[in-house]
Amino acid sequence: MGGVRNGIICERKREIERRIGEACSAASPQREAGGVTVVAVTKRIGVEAMREAFGCGIRNFGENYVREAEDKRSRLEGAGECAWHLIGPLQSNKCAAAARTFDWVHSLDRAKVARRLGRERVAAGLGPIRALVQVNLGGEKTKSGIPPEGVPAFIDEAGSVEGVEVRGLMCIPEPGLDPAGRRGRFGQLAALLRRERERCPGLDCLSMGMSADFEEAVIEGATHVRIGTALMGERA
Ligand SMILES: *Cc1c(COP(=O)(O)O)cnc(C)c1O
């Protein structure tokens, strides 16, 4: 055994950090690499690989399914402190489990879900869950997310829920865009956040960018990049 630090996940993490550093230098104004959190997306990735990622210094895990995350969180309990991010759609009947399992939810787009999450956090004696509002920039009919013009009212509504702390915005660009098109979407989300911050200074997070496009997202101001395959390898 060469030790976890020489393992493939650590190697990929170093490479991702190098690329994030370059993207930060390419941003105008230049950014600090410390302002970008890598959320390791671990859907359908086993706990052994997650333990290895933890050993490489990963402290943020992103999951799409509540039950899968619940199970993994309990199995990784001994590993040490880390933050769990829900990045997939959330049904209202899963809110109780989600509120107990996750520290962050990146996919908030329904007021009913915000109220249920908040109620569960308060009932469980936990601090507020940090929430990012998912924005549907491409106007896709089937996709989750609030249309851009609905964002201010939704932030006001979700932001008034006890047990929920709205911290920013999230997007998943529609499929089929080229890199320039995706970067355009990231720029739109960043502009939307800047506008909202004038009313709500506590909004400080932008969750955007995945394995294929995290550099464009960082150049446009991402604070959280959600990276699966480029870090953890191919999913089962
Ligand atoms: C799966 C997933 C990711 C990670 O995708 P990769 O291309 O493997 O990096 C990021 N965000 C969301 C919402 C996802 O569902």
Supply database-style keywords.
236 residues, alpha/beta, 8-stranded parallel sheet, 9 helices, globular, binds pyridoxal-5'-phosphate
Strand content: 15-25%
Globally, the shape reads globular
- Main pleated sheet: 8 strands, parallel
Number of strands: 8
Which compounds are bound in this model?
Answer: pyridoxal-5'-phosphate
Low-confidence stretches: none
Please tell me how large the radius of gyration is.
17 Å
Query: Fraction of residues in helices?
Result: 40-55%
Task: Give structural notes.
There is one protein chain. The protein has 236 residues and is of the alpha/beta class. The chain contains nine helices and eight strands. It has an eight-stranded parallel sheet with strand order 7-6-5-4-3-2-1-8. The protein starts with 7 loop residues before the first helix and ends with a helix. The mean pLDDT is 96. Residues 41, 43, 64, 87-88, 172, 210-212, 226-230 line the site of pyridoxal-5'-phosphate (PLP).
Q: Would you spell out the secondary-structure blueprint of this structure?
A:
Layout: H1 8-26, E1 37-41, H2 47-55, E2 60-63, H3 66-75, E3 83-86, H4 95-101, E4 104-108, H5 111-123, E5 129-134, H6 151-159, E6 164-170, H7 179-199, E7 205-207, H8 214-219, E8 224-227, H9 229-232
Helix pairs in contact: 4-5
Bound molecules: pyridoxal-5'-phosphate.
Task: Kindly summarize this structure in a few lines.
With 236 residues, the chain is an alpha/beta fold. The chain is built from nine helices and eight strands. α4 (95-101) crosses α5 (111-123).
